[in-house]
């Protein structure tokens, strides 16, 4: 059940809309159960017992993910927050408890600083700029750290990625300094097109890689951390200590496997189409797309209007015209009335042409 009347209204408005531009159509529990049941007769579910404490279908997902990322093994976690903590804590056992990360990184902004409060780790800010740090910045950083964490892409800075040369320079520096690299790759799946390399190439020099099962793949929940076999063996110890060794996890794991089959091959197309959508949105008066062009299939879209008015216009357009362009808006900066929404170009946006995006945005702005 939704928490507020506004959330309930948004749920109903997006469900009844005939066309959606950003994100996907929300589901009822009945619909989600029907989708899950529909996987029972597919190729993903061999006639075997359900998993118990991480065997069976869980190991199938772990092995498949490790192969996709070019790593020997992987461990499944019920949440990404737990996965991040376990990975960093495992590195702390062998290298030290100080983690170099961006101030906008997910553990700092969206995990209630659990790495510090629960895990006894300490973070060092790598740069104050709203982008990934450069190797030159880290080479002269005067505060020591033990593990280098890179969020690819850096979500709160606009889903930003470095270019390949910049990433290689960061790997080179970490190698010279003897520091392992942990990739916060919750959205790594869609990063390969911008970097111009395969996922195994992107991950080859990282000691550990965290990926989400639902942020881009559309699974119900869960995450994985991939790495060398000895690292993953130690990682599973911390998974147990943090309470992640669940009795059964097959529904979430099954949906993640379906995501690898269905969504992973589509992501390059989403990334390409995001550039078309972003360019059309940027034509609106006072609008700004960041980054331009987008690095992945997600980007920030800014308009010079109060968030409350933009939210109401979006709900009215969905209810009255059957068109849902955006999710929620917020005013994150110091300038009142300058609002931002995050746009996710996925399956529902695939049929939108640039002209259709422009026309729908004009209708949206007319409702302000």
Protein model, in words:
GO terms for molecular function: L-allo-threonine aldolase activity. One of its GO terms (biological process) is L-threonine catabolic process. The chain has 368 residues and is an alpha/beta fold. The chain folds into two domains: 5-26 and 265-366, Aspartate Aminotransferase, domain 1 (Alpha-Beta Complex); 39-262, Type I PLP-dependent aspartate aminotransferase-like (Major domain) (Aspartate Aminotransferase, domain 2), CATH 3.40.640.10. It has helices at residues 5-16, 29-38, 57-69, 80-94, 106-109, 114-117, 135-139, 164-177, 192-195, 199-203, 229-241, 250-262, 267-281, 307-321, 354-366, and strands at residues 19-20, 73-77, 98-101, 122-125, 147-151, 181-185, 208-212, 223-227, 288-290, 298-303, 323-324, 339-344. α4 (80-94) crosses α11. The longest helix is centred in the first third of the chain and has 15 residues, at 80-94. The chain is globular. The two termini are 29 Å apart. The mean pLDDT is 96.
Could you give the topology of this structure?
Elements: H1 5-16, E1 19-20, H2 29-38, H3 57-69, E2 73-77, H4 80-94, E3 98-101, H5 106-109, H6 114-117, E4 122-125, H7 135-139, E5 147-151, H8 164-177, E6 181-185, H9 192-195, H10 199-203, E7 208-212, E8 223-227, H11 229-241, H12 250-262, H13 267-281, E9 288-290, E10 298-303, H14 307-321, E11 323-324, E12 339-344, H15 354-366
Parallel strand pairs: 1-11, 3-4, 3-5, 5-6, 6-7
Antiparallel strand pairs: 2-8, 7-8, 9-10, 10-12
Helix pairs in contact: 1-14, 4-11, 13-15
Family: Belongs to the threonine aldolase family.
InterPro entries: ArAA_b-elim_lyase/Thr_aldolase, PyrdxlP-dep_Trfase, PyrdxlP-dep_Trfase_major, PyrdxlP-dep_Trfase_small
Protein name: L-threonine aldolase
């Amino acid at each position: 059940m939704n928490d507020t009347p506004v959330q309930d209204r948004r749920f109903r408005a997006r469900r009844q809309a005939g066309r959606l531009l950003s994100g996907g159509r929300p589901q009822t529990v009945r619909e989600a159960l029907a989708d899950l049941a529909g996987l029972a007769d597919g190729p993903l579910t061999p006639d075997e017992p359900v998993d118990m404490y991480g065997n069976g279908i869980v190991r199938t997902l772990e092995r498949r993910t490790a192969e996709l990322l070019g790593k020997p093994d992987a461990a499944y976690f019920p949440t990404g927050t737990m996965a991040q903590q376990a990975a960093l804590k495992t590195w702390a056992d062998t290298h030290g408890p100080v983690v170099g990360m961006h101030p906008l990184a997910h553990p700092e902004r969206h995990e209630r600083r659990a790495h510090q409060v629960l895990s006894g780790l300490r973070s060092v800010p790598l740069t104050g700029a709203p982008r990934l740090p450069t190797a030159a910045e880290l080479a002269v950083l005067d505060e020591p750290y033990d593990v280098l964490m890179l969020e690819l892409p850096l979500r709160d800075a606009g889903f930003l990625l470095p270019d390949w040369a910049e990433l290689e320079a960061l790997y080179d520096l970490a190698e010279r300094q003897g520091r392992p690299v942990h990739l916060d790759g919750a959205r790594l799946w869609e990063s390969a097109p911008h970097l111009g390399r395969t996922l195994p190439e992107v991950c080859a020099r990282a000691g550990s890689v965290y990926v989400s099962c639902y942020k881009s793949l559309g699974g119900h929940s869960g995450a994985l951390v991939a790495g060398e076999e000895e690292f993953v063996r130690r990682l599973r110890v911390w998974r147990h200590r943090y309470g992640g060794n669940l009795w059964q996890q097959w529904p979430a794991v099954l949906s993640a496997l379906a995501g690898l089959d269905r969504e992973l091959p589509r992501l390059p197309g989403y990334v390409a189409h995001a550039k078309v959508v972003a360019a059309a949105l940027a034509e609106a008066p006072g609008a700004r797309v960041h980054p331009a062009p987008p690095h992945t299939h997600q980007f920030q879209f800014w308009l010079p209007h109060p968030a409350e008015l933009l939210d109401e216009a979006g709900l009215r357009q969905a209810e009255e015209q059957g068109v849902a362009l955006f999710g929620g808006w917020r005013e994150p900066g110091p300038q009142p009335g300058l609002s931002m929404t995050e746009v996710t170009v996925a399956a529902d946006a695939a049929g939108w042409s640039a002209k259709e995006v422009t026309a729908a945005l004009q209708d949206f702005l007319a409702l302000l």
